[in-house]
Each structure stands twice: as C-alpha cells, then as structure tokens.
Design brief:
Elements lengths: L2 H6 L6 H5 L7 H11 L16 H34 L3 E9 L4 H16 L3 E10 L1 E2 L1 H15 L4 E10 L1 H6 L4 E4 L5 E3 L3 E4 L20 H23 L7 H5 L3 E2 L1 H7 L4 E2 L2 H11 L5 E6 L11 E3 L5 E3 L12 E4 L1 H7 L6 E4 L9 H5 L10 H7 L6
Parallel strand pairs: 1-2, 1-10, 2-4, 4-5, 4-6, 5-9
Antiparallel strand pairs: 3-13, 6-8, 7-13, 7-14, 11-12
Helix pairs in contact: 5-6
C-alpha cells in the first residue's frame, strides 16, 4: 500500500476494518459505532442552549402524550357532527293527511302516498294526520286496506285533531297507535247511514225488474251488511283495546277525545308532533326528517249530491255521472250537516242485528235499520236522542 493510502486512512480505521465486510461486523462493533455517532444524553443540547437531562425527556414525553389525548377527545366530539353532516338523517317519517269528507280523491291521496312510503327505502314510519268525520264507505275501506298493508311493514301512528270518526275511524283502525287531542269533537261512530229506502216502480226501459233499483227491504239489508263489515273490522283491529262490548260499539256513538282514551277507541292524548317522535323512536330512528304529504288542493268539505226527480239522492261527479243508486255514508253526526244537509231524509244503520222475533220492532227504530228522519238518525249515531 502506498504512503498516500496510509495518509488517507482515518485514525479510527484499522487494517481489520478495511478487510472485514460491513455486513459481518460484530454486535460490539455496531454498538460502538452507534455510540460514536450519538453524544451522551447528559451532554445533548436543548434549544435554549442548555443540556437535556433524563427529567427533560420525561416532561417532553408527558406533554406529547397529553396533546395526543386531547386530540383524540376532540375528534370524538367533532366526528359525530361531521359524520351526520355527511350521511344525513337515519330515515324519514312520512306524515299523510286525511282531511275533510272521504271521497274518491281522499282515498286516492292516501293510497298513493302510503304506496310510495312502502316503496321508498328511506321512509321508516308513517303518521296519519286526521281531521275527518267520515264519508263514502267503499273509499273508507280502500284507505283501511292501505293503512293495514303499510302497518305490516313499518310503524303507523294516527293523530286525530278534531274529527276522527265513522269512515275516518275505520281507515285508521289498523294503526299501531291512535293519538287524540283531549278536545277532539268526535272519535269512533262505528256505523253507516243512507237515504231512506224508497220503492221504485216498474220501468219499461229496463231489462229486468230490479234494474231501476232495489226495493226498500233489499236496500236495508245491503246497508246493514255494510254496517256489520264496518263493525267487524274495528273489532278485529282494536277489539283488545276497546273497553266496550260489541253491542256498545255498534251503538255508533261519537266520543270526545277524553272519552275515546278512556274507553279504548284511542290510545293516548297527543298531537302530530308527538306521534311523529314516537313513531320515529319505534322505528329506531335517532335522527330523522319529516316529509308531510298534503293534498295539492284542499279536499272539499262535502260530497256533491244530485237529487233525482223521484226524490232519491245519489252521489254525482260534477253535474253529471251518477256514482250510486243511493247515498250511503260512513259519516259521524258532527260532519252530517256539512256533508248532506238538512233536507235529506236519512236512515241510520249500525252493526246491531235484530234479535229473532224483533224484526218488526227493529223496523221502527234507527238502530235496526228502519226509516228515520235526520234527527232520529243522528241520535242513533251518537246524538242526544238515545
């Protein structure tokens, strides 16, 4: 080796270092090399020009640890809000309005919105906002079927403001819970009413003797059948809650809100907001939005009627187009006047069938399906007459 090579070697190097590969150095050599690169702890400089000690290192690590804990805690507090802002509410509670006299438009509105609620994955519960004294039986039954179908897949609650009676009560009977305002005017009224049956004479233009219309006995029988179906549906849905027997339910009384809770026609006092909160809780929603489904135009307060030359009254679509041979309503006394008026002779049908041998007596009473004036019929449906 030349003298130049000898002079270039550093004092730390030795012939052994020059000939031994780096990867084969002993542990002692690696430790010594590491020690040579790192100054002693006691002599390490700190930013203020002093020397760091073991106590300084402990204090520094403690400060770093506290900062880390605070950062984690702040993240736990902020994260839910950020997550909620990103993901939105857990689901939706749909509020569907049942307002005014029940007719085809009402039934279609309820059916469409409940069908949409069932098909919409974001809707987890439904609340029916009710202010109706009833209306047409067939349309009330359509709503009943839609509510029953919806209640089988999600919580359905109903909240009655002022009126939730007759056909409207039938519609909400399948709801999981019924809330009423304490001052609600009419709840219940399980029964139907129709124009007084009138005989119709022969008509040469018809193809059969009954084409012009049914005789009074047949009309009474059919309306009594509607009343019995109404009664059976209510008992099926709320028989365990109602504290009245079949005969008392069939009396067709309309109850105040306070009475309805007491006798089981309603579950508890409450309003729409409370029903929404409870339905959301039942559906397991901690955070939710409310989607209120109201009709585009307010449902008319009465059903358009058309009086024939023979004095019978039928439901009419505008100025023409009869929808039935006679007016049959599942309507409560509180909504009777605005729906029908004072000039129409009505017969009330509850769900009470006459006992054997009492048919003749039943014909003289409104409860058994006989003819009655408007006042008499109102009394049989919960008025002051009985």
């Amino acid at each position: 080796m030349s003298s130049d090579d000898e002079s270039a070697r550093t004092p730390a190097e030795s012939p052994d270092d020059a000939t031994t590969p780096k990867g084969d150095r002993s542990t002692a050599d690696r430790s010594r090399s590491t020690a040579d690169r790192s100054p002693p702890t006691a002599e390490r400089r700190v930013p203020d020009g002093g020397r760091a000690t073991g106590l300084d290192r402990i204090e520094t690590r403690h400060a770093v640890g506290v900062a880390a804990v605070l950062a984690v805690a702040a993240g736990l507090l902020v994260a839910p809000g950020v997550y909620g802002a990103v993901t939105g509410p857990d689901g939706t509670v749909a509020v569907v309005e049942i307002d005014g006299t029940i007719d085809s438009a009402t039934a279609q509105h309820v059916e469409d919105n409940l069908r949409d609620a069932r098909a919409n994955d974001s809707v987890e519960a439904v609340v029916l906002e009710v202010d109706s004294g009833g209306g047409l039986p067939a349309q009330s039954e359509r709503m009943y079927a839609a509510v029953d179908r919806t209640a089988s897949v999600m919580p359905v609650y109903a909240a009655v403001d002022s009126l939730g009676a007759s056909g409207a009560y039938l519609a909400i009977a399948p709801a999981d819970r019924i809330y009423v305002a304490p001052s609600a005017q009419a709840v219940g009224s399980v029964g139907v009413a129709g124009t007084a049956p009138a005989p119709s004479g022969p008509n040469a233009g018809t193809t059969g003797p009954d084409k012009r219309g049914n005789d009074p006995d047949e009309q009474r029988e059919r309306r009594q059948t509607l009343a019995n179906l109404f009664l059976e549906n209510v008992i099926e849905q709320r028989g365990d809650e109602i504290e009245l027997d079949r005969e008392e339910i069939a009396h067709a009384d309309a109850y105040l809100g306070t009475e309805a809770v007491e006798n089981g026609f309603a579950d508890e006092f409450g309003f729409v907001d409370g029903a929404v909160a409870d339905a959301a809780s039942e559906a397991g929603l901690g955070d939710y939005r409310v989607d209120t489904r109201r009709t585009e135009s307010r449902i008319p307060s009465g059903i358009p009627l058309l009086e024939r030359d023979d004095g019978t009254v039928v439901v009419a679509d505008g100025a023409e187009g009869d929808l039935g041979d006679g007016l049959v309503l599942a309507v409560a006394p509180a909504a009777w006047d605005e729906t029908v008026g004072d000039d129409v002779v009505m017969t009330s049908y509850t769900g009470r069938l006459p006992a054997d041998g009492d048919a003749a007596d039943a014909e003289a009473t409104t409860g058994g399906g006989g003819n009655a004036t408007t006042d008499d019929a109102a009394a049989a449906n919960g008025g002051d007459g009985e």
